[in-house]
Structures are given as structure tokens and as C-alpha cells.
Write a structure and sequence with these properties.
By secondary structure, the chain is α/β, with parallel strands linked by helices. The chain has a single domain, classed as TIM Barrel (Alpha-Beta Barrel). Strand 4, helix 5 and strand 5 form a beta-alpha-beta unit. Helix 6 packs parallel to helix 8. The longest helix is centred in the last third of the chain and has 17 residues. It is globular. It binds pyridoxine-5'-phosphate. Pyridoxine-5'-phosphate (PXP) binds next to strand 8 and helix 10.
């Protein structure tokens, strides 16, 4: 069964907009797990405009499911935080400085040596590693020789095409990339712009997906349906 990891960065964005501690990010992390999420994801950025480094430290002790920290491993501050907090999984994203949101996967061929060295640092600390990758078979092959445990397929393009009704075209490159990952023994995650409309189609075509991490759409839906209902809706999208 594919796990649902809820990215709670948007809760921190809302809190930061007014100062104070409302909504309470730590309580949200606790509640999403009570409401059925299989994991909590955070994406600290150097400017701390969403989740702060202190939030990440505060959340770790209340995790009863799986903790996934994603971010830019070119920042030494990020590496230090992950090694200190020791989440279940770190997802390495090739963000540029000041980027609004992640918008591309690693070039696993060009950055092969860098990825090997960086992944080894986390794996030596007993942390499972996933790297963000575009749905391109060559990039999946490149990922397989870096030592990563998993890849996370970047699903923005899938979501964009799906929204225009091109469902088959949308899913095709992801099925090919997922098949290659499976063949090469890599675990498989996916994320970015997944929502309650496009998630079932993705999940049905890639049934051996280990985990999806979803933030923006899920938190937006929670405004209308409530957090508990929304998490259950997304979980239903992942049913076989
Ligand atoms: N995966 C990665 C690597 C991301 O950077 C993000 C956005 O922070 C997500 C998944 C979640 O994307 P969304 O907020 O669109 O669900």
C-alpha cells in the first residue's frame, strides 16, 4: 500500500504570516498522523520562510510514523540539520538559492560523483535517502549507481497534462521511469502537484509506489473539507 506523507510547510507559511504560533505546526504534525497520514514531510529552506529549522527539531520527537526531510543538500546547514535530527528519510532536491518551489529533478549523470559522496554521508548515519528525479529513464539509470535507496519522481508535468485531459500521455513517462526503477531495485516515491483529482490515476498505473508526499493541494482542500476528512480522501485515492 502506498504511504501518504503530508507536507506541512504550508501550515508554517500561514503561521509565519502573522507571527505567534497559530496554527501550531507541531500540533498539526501530531494531528495529521492521528488522522491517518503515514508520514510527515518538511522542506526547510535557508531563508526559513516556511518551516524553520527549530520546527524540524521540535517535530522529530512526536513522530510516530515516518519523518521525511527534503531540501537542498548543497546547503551545509541543511546537511547538519538532517544529521542532527536523523529522520527516517532525507529527500535530496537540486534547488537553486531563493527558489519558489522545487521545479526540476537531479541530472544524475552530470552530478553522479557529487550525489554518490553526499548520499554516502546520510547513509552512513543510517538515514534512508531518496533523490528527486524527472521521469526520464536515463536519469533513473543514473540514480541507480549513486547508492540512493529511492527516487522521488517529480510529478509537476504529470499534473499539468492530466489537468488538460491528456491522461494517457501524462502517465506514460512515469510508468516507464517507474518500471526502470523497479527493475534496478530502487524504491519509488512521487510528489509535486498531486491532488485529489489526479492521484488515483497515478496510483492505479504505478501500484508499487512506496510513498507520495503531498502539501499544497491537500492543505488547500483541508480549508473546505477539514484536515481529517481530507487525509482520508487522499488515502482513498491510494487504495488499490
Ligand atoms: N516533493 C518535493 C521534493 C517538493 O519539493 C515538494 C514541494 O515542497 C513536494 C514534494 C510537494 O509538492 P506539493 O506541495 O505540490 O504537494
Amino acid at each position: 500500500m502506498t504511504k501518504l506523507s503530508v507536507n506541512i510547510n504550508k501550515i508554517a507559511t500561514l503561521r509565519n504570516s502573522r507571527g505567534g504560533n497559530n496554527p501550531d505546526v507541531k500540533k498539526t504534525a501530531m494531528d495529521v498522523q492521528i488522522f491517518g497520514a503515514d508520514g510527515v514531510t518538511v522542506h526547510p529552506r535557508p531563508d526559513e520562510r516556511h518551516i524553520r529549522y527549530a520546527d524540524v527539531r521540535a517535530i522529530k520527537p512526536i513522530i510516530t510514523t515516518e519523518f521525511n526531510i527534503e531540501g537542498n543538500c548543497r546547503e551545509q546547514k541543511f546537511i547538519d540539520l538532517v544529521l542532527e535530527v536523523k529522520p527516517h528519510q532525507v529527500t535530496l532536491v537540486p534547488d537553486a538559492e531563493g527558489q519558489l518551489t522545487s521545479d526540476h529533478g537531479w541530472n544524475t549523470i552530470e552530478h553522479q560523483q557529487y550525489l554518490k559522496d553526499t548520499i554516502a554521508v546520510f547513509k552512513n548515519a543510517g538515514i534512508r535517502v531518496s533523490i528527486f528525479v524527472d521521469p526520464v529513464v536515463e536519469m533513473v539509470e543514473g540514480a541507480a549507481t549513486t547508492g540512493t535507496d529511492r527516487i522521488e519522481l517529480y510529478t509537476e508535468e504529470y499534473a499539468r497534462k492530466f489537468a488538460t485531459g491528456q491522461k494517457e500521455e501524462a502517465i506514460a513517462p512515469y510508468m516507464a521511469a517507474a518500471e526502470k526503477a523497479r527493475e534496478l531495485g530502487l524504491g519509488l516515491n512521487a510528489g509535486h502537484d498531486l491532488d485529489r483529482h489526479n492521484l488515483s490515476w497515478f496510483s492505479k498505473h504505478i501500484p508499487y509506489l512506496d510513498e507520495v508526499s503531498i502539501g499544497h493541494a491537500l492543505i488547500c482542500d483541508a480549508l473546505y473539507f477539514g484536515l481529517e476528512n481530507t487525509i482520508q480522501m487522499y488515502k482513498r485515492c491510494l487504495l488499490p
